[in-house]
Amino acid sequence: MSGVWVFKNGVVRLVENPGAEPLDGNRQGSSSSARRKVLVHVPTNEVITSYEDLELKLLSLGWERYYDDPDLLQFHKRSTVHLISLPKDFNRFKSIHMYDIVVKNRNMFEVRDM
Fold first, then answer.
1. Residue 57, Cβ neighbours under 10 Å: how many?
2. Residue 38: which residues within 8 A CB-CB, separation 6 or more?
3. Nearest Cα to Cα of residue 3 among 111, 101, 109
4. Which three-class secondary structure state does DSSP give residue 102?
5. Half-sphere exposure of residue 96, counting CA atoms within 13 Å on the CB side?
6. Predicted model pTM
7. 52 near 43, Cβ under 8 Å?
8. What is the spatial distance between Cα 47 and Cα 45, in angstroms, rounded to a whole number?
9. Residues 21, 27: contact at Cβ < 8 Å?
10. E strands within 50-104?
């Protein structure tokens, strides 16, 4: 995992390619040749292409779905304090969410360049 950590409006986020994305988060000027990140389930080498796929993998790892917030998909693992919060729309699923899943599920998921 490489890049620059940016703190703005009380939120820390990773800018993976600082040359392709302005620090203010505005992606309009980013290069069209920037590589897209994908989340991969390592045991099956499967690219996660939907929340349905992701939910099946997380449930098999002991995660439970929370339904408290209608704007988020949330998963909690009883044996930990970890909570995974994802935007409801899969099109807004970004690399920061992918890395959150990777960190909380070591050796089960990877983020790769597409």
1. 19
2. 47, 48, 98, 111, 112, 113, 114
3. 111
4. helix
5. 14
6. 0.69
7. no
8. 7
9. yes
10. 63-66, 72-77, 83-87
What pLDDT shows up at residue 37? 93
Rounded Cα gap, residues 108 and 60, in angstroms: 11
Choose among 25, 27, 33, 39: nearest CA to 95. 39
Q: pLDDT per residue over 53-97, tens digit each? A: 999 999 999 999 999 888 899 999 988 899 999 999 999 999 999
- Closest Cα to residue 57, out of 114, 94, 102, 93? 102
Both tokens of 68, joined, read: 């408290």
3-state secondary structure (DSSP) of residue 88: coil
Sheet of strand 83-87, all strands in order from the earlier edge strand to the far edge: 63-66, 72-77, 83-87
